[in-house]
Amino acid sequence: MAAEWEQRPIAEVYYDAAPADMDGDGDLDLVTRSARGVVWHENDGIGVFPASHLAIDNWDIKTFTPLDYDGDGLVDLAVCDDWANTLHIYTNTGNGYDAGFELEYRTARCRSLASGDLDGDGADEPRCLLGRQLRQCGPVRQPRDWACHDSDFAGSHL
User: Fold this and answer.
1) What are the CA-CA distances from residue 11 to residues 26, 34, 52, 136 (Å)?
2) In the prediction, which pLDDT does 156 show?
3) What is the tens place of the pLDDT at every residue in 25-51?
4) Diameter of the chain by CA atoms?
5) How many CA atoms lie within 13 A of 121 on its CB side?
6) By CB count within 10 A, which of 1, 7, 34, 93 is most buried?
7) Is the distance from CB of 116 to CB of 122 less than 8 angstroms?
8) Distances in whole angstroms, Cα of residue 124 to Cα of each of 6, 33, 48, 64, 84
9) In sequence order, what are the beta bridge partners of 136?
10) What one-character DSSP code corresponds to residue 2?
């Protein structure tokens, strides 16, 4: 039986939230964006979040999405960096996150970021909403060899 919901004040302001099993224990944790960067709140298994962990220390993050970028079963993070105007991937090493690498440049207008296997190829791909366009990135040959292209919401590539 799930724990009864209880409102709890927090000392920090969070802007975005997404569920993801960050610690691999089988329950969904809560991943948020704050002024400090990306923070995940550990679910104790009954819906209580007693501990918070700073996953990415970068206050320039505009938006983020959890995904399994490299297919290793660990939750990686894709982020739009507002200052550098880039889409970065931070891979989960199993003991924290690496320094990240730039996947795509020109994301200054990125308003929202999401991921999933939308094309049915078995890989999570990040999608960045750019006003009226959707920038989608997907693997070409190797896991870090991706191509990004824009499409409109009618399904045609721009």
Assistant:
1) 28, 11, 12, 35
2) 45
3) 999 999 998 888 899 999 999 888 888
4) 49
5) 12
6) 34
7) no
8) 34, 21, 28, 14, 24
9) 127, 149
10) P
